[in-house]
Amino acid sequence: MGLFDFLKHDKKKQEEQTEQQAAAPGTGAAASPPHSDMGSKYTDASAGGKAAAERMAAPAPPKAPPAPKAAMPPAAGPGPSRAHPGPAQPSDLSAAHKAVPVPPKPAPGAQKRTYTVKAGDSLAAIARRELGNEARWRELYAMNRGVIGADPDLIHPGQVLTLPT
């Protein structure tokens, strides 16, 4: 069965339904004239468009005045006031501490290792070569943020970086 056969079949089926509706008394088919295949598709859409246009043209309902705010009594009793909480602190479960790790505390009397950046270096390459693990570049950046600046991808030859132990 080809494409046109399906179309003919659907058209024939629709014609049979309209004939049945017209033959059945009290179904309301007499109130609405039979439509062509194209007309029935778009009459509902045009009626909906007209209804939407009427709703948009109608004046907006008046707005209710805002309810007056009730004054909150001050919190009684000991404890911190919740009116002005302090600055948010990252917890162990938050992701804030994972982005850039806190540099490890140097042991007292331990000698610091340093590295002078050469042309073509990156923090990952320095971490791989000097620390044995490329993933430790974040630790290297955390220790040298003051020297490197806000962009860890931008390091310049001649910068002296402190290496973690």
TrEMBL record:
Feature: compositional bias, Basic and acidic residues: 1-16
SUPFAM superfamilies in alphabetical order: LysM domain (SSF54106)
Compositionally biased region (Pro residues): 59-68
CDD domains given in the database record: LysM
InterPro entries: Bact_Kbp, LysM, LysM_dom_sf
Biased composition (Low complexity): 19-31, 45-58, 69-86
Region of interest: Disordered: 1-115
Superkingdom as given in the UniProt entry: Bacteria
Annotated LysM domain residues: 113-163
Protein name: LysM domain-containing protein
Organism listed in the record: Streptomyces racemochromogenes
